[in-house]
Structures are given as C-alpha cells and as structure tokens.
Amino acid sequence: MTTKTLIAPSVLSADFSRLGDEVEAIDRAGADWIHLDVMDGHFVPNITFGPPVIKAIRNRTKKLFDCHLMIAPVDAYLAAFADAGCDSITVHAEAGPHLDRSLQAIKALGKQAGVSLNPSTPENVIEYVLDRLDLVLLMTVNPGFGGQAFIPAMVDKVKRVKAMIGERPIRIEIDGGVSPETAPLVAAAGADVLIAGAAIFRGGGEDAYRDNIEAIRSAADAARRT
Ligand SMILES: O=C(CO)[C@@H](O)[C@H](O)COP(=O)(O)O
C-alpha cells in the first residue's frame, strides 16, 4: 500500500524499567509507529502489560500507538485500550469468538482495526471481514516471545494476503524475526509495515536503535524496488 516501508519497533524488547525513555529514544531514532504487544498468559504463554502502562507512556511520543492484543476474550477490553491512547487495535482471528463483532467495535471506538493471524492459521479466515480492516498483521513466529526465528513459509502467506487485499487500503504488517536479512523477503512479497523487537533494541541506546531501524528499512526498501 505504501511506497516506503514503515518500521514499528516492538517495545517488548525494550528495557521496561525505563519504558518511557525507551519510547522517546525509538521515536527520535526514526520509528514510524510504536508497537505494543499486550499478552495475557492465556491466549499466549507470556504476560506483558495493559492499558495503565500504555496510558503512562502515551505522552512520551506523538507517533502512532499500534496495539497488538494477544488476549482472549478481547471485546470487553477494547474500550480500555482505546481510552489509553492506542491508535490502531489489532485482535487475533483465533481469539474469537466473533471476529466481525470485534472489528466493528474497534471502528465504533474511532480506531484503526487490525486482524492478526498465527503462523498456522490460513489466510482465508479474513475473506469476509476484509472491508472492515485497516491492517492485517501476519505473525512470522508463534506469538508470545521476542527473539524467535522467522518462519520462512510465511513469505508465501504474505503474497496470498496481498493478492486477497487487491486495491483495498489495507496495510500488511509483519511480526516476528524481522531483521535486515528477513526484511527483504517480506517486503518483496508485499509487506508495508515491519515490526521488530530484538533486531532494533540491541546495542543499548538511541544511536544503535537508529542504525538498526535504518538497516531494516533500507534492506526492505531495496527489495521493494527490485
Ligand atoms: O508479537 C510479538 C511476539 O508475540 C512480536 O512483536 C515480537 O515481539 C517481535 O519480536 P522480534 O521477533 O522482532 O524480537
């Protein structure tokens, strides 16, 4: 959809003891969006943070807060995440029970609506909700943890989703194992937004984050041009 690849650092790999400072650092380092991984210890085998933490860091940047809800059930919590300052809210198709209802609720809250698919979930589950979507987040690792290896079979899925979307203004986001080595694969297949945690939050500071963001972006943009 976009001509330039957008980079969304996942704060899952940030230093949580200095989360507000880390958000400011990735903002200054060139992040396009700030990716927030919310995990409940039920839908995924890890627990992170919820609306109070998001609200506490909201005033540290003006960049888009891209909220990825790995929680089930989800509908009862959508308003709290909207109120906390999330700009886009993505729910998992697998979290259920009613994906179409969840997407309608997100739009009614005035937020961008996204759906995420685990690696094993076929893309056809989004066929009948495409017209409610602003983004599709394709997991390229199994959700729950940062620093896992990219699953190469997902490149074909990116191509299939790109074809399904057609001319609709829906962004494809990629999440898991994104690095300068894997970014070209998904960018060439049709990805618009690359989420990365471990590959950005290494080196421990703003200058390293800037280099890491630029390395992913330039590798992706070069692949898009070829
Ligand atoms: O949603 C998730 C994990 O469930 C991701 O956002 C990861 O946090 C990406 O981390 P890296 O694989 O880039 O380290």
TrEMBL record:
<feature type="binding site">
    <location>
        <position position="68"/>
    </location>
    <ligand>
        <name>a divalent metal cation</name>
    </ligand>
</feature>
<keyword id="KW-0119">Carbohydrate metabolism</keyword>
<comment type="function">
    <text>Catalyzes the reversible epimerization of D-ribulose 5-phosphate to D-xylulose 5-phosphate.</text>
</comment>
<feature type="binding site">
    <location>
        <position position="10"/>
    </location>
    <ligand>
        <name>substrate</name>
    </ligand>
</feature>
<feature type="binding site">
    <location>
        <begin position="175"/>
        <end position="177"/>
    </location>
    <ligand>
        <name>substrate</name>
    </ligand>
</feature>
<dbReference type="InterPro" id="IPR000056">
    <property type="entry name" value="Ribul_P_3_epim-like"/>
</dbReference>
<feature type="active site" description="Proton donor">
    <location>
        <position position="175"/>
    </location>
</feature>
<dbReference type="Pfam" id="PF00834">
    <property type="entry name" value="Ribul_P_3_epim"/>
</dbReference>
<keyword id="KW-0413">Isomerase</keyword>
<dbReference type="InterPro" id="IPR011060">
    <property type="entry name" value="RibuloseP-bd_barrel"/>
</dbReference>
<feature type="binding site">
    <location>
        <begin position="144"/>
        <end position="147"/>
    </location>
    <ligand>
        <name>substrate</name>
    </ligand>
</feature>
<feature type="binding site">
    <location>
        <position position="35"/>
    </location>
    <ligand>
        <name>a divalent metal cation</name>
    </ligand>
</feature>
<feature type="binding site">
    <location>
        <position position="37"/>
    </location>
    <ligand>
        <name>a divalent metal cation</name>
    </ligand>
</feature>
<keyword id="KW-0479">Metal-binding</keyword>
<dbReference type="GO" id="GO:0004750">
    <property type="term" value="F:D-ribulose-phosphate 3-epimerase activity"/>
</dbReference>
<comment type="pathway">
    <text>Carbohydrate degradation.</text>
</comment>
<dbReference type="InterPro" id="IPR013785">
    <property type="entry name" value="Aldolase_TIM"/>
</dbReference>
<comment type="similarity">
    <text>Belongs to the ribulose-phosphate 3-epimerase family.</text>
</comment>
<feature type="active site" description="Proton acceptor">
    <location>
        <position position="37"/>
    </location>
</feature>
<dbReference type="InterPro" id="IPR026019">
    <property type="entry name" value="Ribul_P_3_epim"/>
</dbReference>
<feature type="binding site">
    <location>
        <position position="175"/>
    </location>
    <ligand>
        <name>a divalent metal cation</name>
    </ligand>
</feature>
<feature type="binding site">
    <location>
        <position position="68"/>
    </location>
    <ligand>
        <name>substrate</name>
    </ligand>
</feature>
<protein>
    <recommendedName>
        <fullName>Ribulose-phosphate 3-epimerase</fullName>
        <ecNumber>5.1.3.1</ecNumber>
    </recommendedName>
</protein>
